[in-house]
Amino acid sequence: MEEHPFKVEHEGFIAWLVLNRPEKRNSMNIRFFEGLQQHLEEFDRNEEIRAVIIRAEGKGFTAGTDLFELGPLVQSGDAHSREELKINIRRLQEAIGAVERCRKPVIAAAHGHCIGGGVDLLSACDIRMATRETIFAIRETKVAVIADLGTFQRLPHIIGHGIFRELALTGRDFTAEEAMNMGFITHICETREELYAQARRTASEIAACSPISVQGAKEVILYSRDHGIQAGLEYVAQKNAAALLSEDLVEAVKSFMEKRAPVFKGR
C-alpha cells in the first residue's frame, strides 16, 4: 500500500502541508487530489489555523499530473464514457479549488520543478515563492492536452493575458526569475532553507493579524475578481457592516493606545 501523498506539520497558528511522494517526483494521482481536498477543508474548519504553507519533499515540488494512473480515466467510446470523464475532471477541479476556497491564506513554497498540475495548484494559492533554480511550465500543450484544473481560469488574473498566452500556448519552461518579473511569485530564495524561512515569516505576519479581517479580505478579493468592481464594492460594504464591530477591532484600538502588539482572537 502506497503511503499517503501528504504529511501535515503544525507550528503555532501555521499548518504545513507537505507533498510527500518524492519517489514519484510528487506527481499528482487520485490519492493526491483526494488528500488535497480533505486537508484544505480540515484547515478551513480548524480555528487554530490562520495560515497554510504548501511545500514538498524530494528533488522537486511536483512533476504534475500522474499520467500513468490518471491516463486510464481517458477512454474512447460512447457518450456515457465521455460523460464519466467530465465528471472525473470536475472532481479533480474541485480538489484544486479547495485551496482557493479555504478561508485561511495559502502560501506555496516551490523548489526544483513545478510542472503542469503544479502550476494549477500554485495558481489557486494566495502567495507563491520559490528557490532560484525552480522551473515552471504549463506543459499540457506539449502532451496534447488542454490544461483543465484551473490555470487558464486563474493565472491570467495574476500575471496578465499577454505573457500567460505565450506560456500556455508554447508550453515552454520559465524560470523563477521570469516568474518573479511577471508577478507569479513574490520572493526568490537561494536555498530551500531560506525559502521555508521566508514562507514562515510571511505566514507568521498573516497569523498575527485579525483572522476575521484576513479571512474576510480573501473572500472579498475572490468575490471582486469573479463579479467585478461594483459588485465587489457592495460585497465589502456588507461584509464590513456585519463584521467591523468585533472584539478584534476593540483590541486593535486598545493595543494602539497602550503601545503594544495586539493579540487577536478571531472574535
Fold and architecture overview:
The protein has about 270 residues and is of the alpha/beta class. The chain has 2 domains: about 200 residues, 2-enoyl-CoA Hydratase, Chain A, domain 1 (Alpha-Beta Complex), CATH 3.90.226.10; about 50 residues. It is built from 11 helices and 9 strands. The strands form 2 sheets. Strands 1-2-3-4-6-9 form a 6-stranded mixed beta sheet, sandwiched between helices. It has a 3-stranded mixed beta sheet with strand order 5-7-8. The radius of gyration is 19 Å and the shape is globular.
CATH class categorisation of the largest domain: Alpha Beta
Would you list the SSEs in sequence order as H and E? EEHEHHEEHEEHHEHEHHHH
The CATH superfamily title of the largest domain: 2-enoyl-CoA Hydratase, Chain A, domain 1
Whole-number mean pLDDT:
92
User: In DSSP terms, counting alpha (H) and pi (I) runs of 4 or more, how many helices?
Assistant: 11
Query: By helix and strand content, what is the structural category?
Result: alpha/beta
CATH architecture classification of the largest domain: Alpha-Beta Complex
Q: Point out poorly predicted stretches.
A: none
**Largest β sheet strand count, sense and barrel closure:** 6 strands, mixed
Principal-axis shape: globular
Strand order of the largest sheet: 1-2-3-4-6-9
Rg measurement, Å = 19 Å
CATH topology of the largest domain: 2-enoyl-CoA Hydratase, Chain A, domain 1
Record field, number of beta strands: 9
Percent of residues in helices:
40-55%
Alpha carbon gap, first and last residue: 43 Å
Number of domains: 2
Q: How much β-strand is present in the residues?
A: 5-15%
